[in-house]
Design a protein that fits this description.
It comes from Subtercola vilae. By secondary structure, this protein is α/β, with parallel strands linked by helices. The chain has 2 domains: 21-155, 3-Layer(aba) Sandwich (Creatine Amidinohydrolase, Chain A, domain 1); 161-401, Creatinase/methionine aminopeptidase superfamily (Creatine Amidinohydrolase). It is built from 10 helices and 19 strands. Strands 5-4-3-2-6-7 form a 6-stranded mixed sheet, with helices on both faces. A 4-stranded mixed sheet has the order 9-10-11-19, covered by helices on one side. β10 (254-263) and β11 form a beta hairpin. α4 packs across α5, α7 (161-190) crosses α8 and α9 (281-300) packs antiparallel against α10 (307-320). It is globular and about 70 Å long.
Length: 403
């Protein structure tokens, strides 16, 4: 099989967004600050930090935080050892302040407090902040009332055009990884050699994704995971999110390639379920049912639809086929700077879908002792419906590996 999506002559892809882009990101939040009567918002969530300033870092005990005031003034706080990294990445903030070390003779958030202009009264804090970090910020800014807010999380729902371009490129590479996994297996079959194990197949597709990015992209933005996913076969695939093992694929197995990658920090996932050899009647029934649910579920992802309604429409296909007892999870979830993030395509989420959102469409069934069947595409909500960003074939004809 030829990797049709790969091209050695491609113009290098710009994986890092321009610093000026983040001015628009920060400006998007200001009306929400006003609506919630907040003088500022504070977050130390690594994904929020990257979203607001373009600074990607290795999260650890040393806090990195962003303060965005209602007047648009932004402050990025880093430990001193991360300051050069922030400068190299051209992190977008009006002020870059740093503290010496953690826990430090002087508490880290004191450096932020010194940089804050005026006397803020109400400060919204990201609900992702730990109690330890929130307490540290409150001690450094004793005159402020701290209130929880999800305004940054909600702002991240709808992607800017520049972000969508990153998602599309991540989808292209995810398709390359899927093709590479199939090619690796078919080559082993053609040689009549030993079939790969789950772990070997996972290592191969991960390597393919990472090498493709470093070969074809300018300034790769490293996040975890940069590329890879879950590979499981036979009865192992009946455990959602099971980790690859040393189990070696066998003729007749159902197996799953649950793959994805991040370009510019923006994720995409693409999952396909394969059958190794001629499918049995049961394998055909299970696969066809999940494919039908995924197709109808994708059509239900459209602007103005509630997340819970799309979920109900999708999973009803499986229930109506008499396979509801094998359901283990919702239809899908939001994707962005996190592989899993809100909104949730689940019975408890009434969020209305909007153009520019990216969500997964991944119904699955899991038959104990036999296998799991899941098909997933990352879907871009458009003005008139939605489109899958990943394109690898989904039906059983495309997902049968001949022996």
């Amino acid at each position: 099989m030829t990797l049709t999506n790969a091209s050695p002559s491609r113009t290098p892809f710009a994986a890092r967004l321009a610093p000026e882009f983040f001015d628009r990101v920060q400006a998007r939040l200001l009306p929400s600050l006003e609506a919630e009567s907040l003088d500022a918002v504070l977050t130390d969530d690594p994904e929020d930090v990257a979203y607001l300033t373009g600074f990607f870092h290795h999260p650890c005990e040393r806090p990195v935080a962003v303060w965005l005031a209602a007047d648009g003034e932004s402050i990025l706080m880093t430990p001193m050892l991360e300051r050069e990294n922030a400068e190299r990445q051209q992190a977008r903030a009006d002020q870059l302040v740093s503290y010496a070390e953690f826990p430090g003779v002087e508490a880290p958030f004191t450096s932020l407090a010194r940089a804050v202009v005026g006397a803020p009264r109400r400060v919204g804090f990201s609900t992702h902040m730990t109690h330890e970090r929130l307490t540290a910020a409150m001690l450094a800014l004793p005159g402020c009332e701290f209130v929880p807010t999800t305004l940054i999380t909600v702002a991240r729902y709808v992607k800017f055009d520049e972000e969508i371009a990153l998602h599309r490129e991540a989808a292209r590479i995810t398709d390359v990884m899927l093709e590479a996994g199939v090619e690796h297996l078919t080559e082993a079959i053609s040689r009549r050699g030993t079939l790969p194990s789950e772990a070997e197949l996972a290592a191969h597709v991960t390597s393919t994704g990472v090498k493709t990015m470093y070969r074809e992209h300018d300034d790769v933005v490293v996040v975890s995971p940069l590329a890879g996913g879950l590979v499981y076969a036979g009865a192992n695939s009946a455990f959602p999110h099971g980790l690859p093992s040393g189990y070696r694929l066998r003729p007749g197995d159902t197996f799953m390639l649950s793959l994805g990658c991040a370009v510019g920090g923006r994720f995409v996932e693409g999952e396909r379920t394969f059958v190794l050899g001629e499918p049995t009647d049961d394998q055909r029934r299970y696969h066809d049912t999940v494919r039908r649910a995924q197709k109808i579920g994708g059509e239900a992802i459209r602007p103005g639809a509630q997340c819970r309604a799309a979920n109900t429409t999708c999973l009803a296909v499986i229930e109506d086929a008499g396979l509801g007892r094998y359901l283990r999870h919702r239809q899908g979830h939001g994707i962005g700077l996190g592989m899993h993030e809100p909104p949730w395509l689940e019975a408890g989420d009434a969020t209305l879908l909007e153009p520019g959102m990216v969500v997964s469409n991944e119904p699955g069934i899991y038959i104990p002792g036999h296998a799991g069947y899941r098909i997933s595409d990352s879907m871009l909500v458009t003005e008139h419906g939605s489109e899958p960003l990943t394109s690898f074939g989904r039906d059983l004809e495309h997902c049968t590996i001949a022996l």
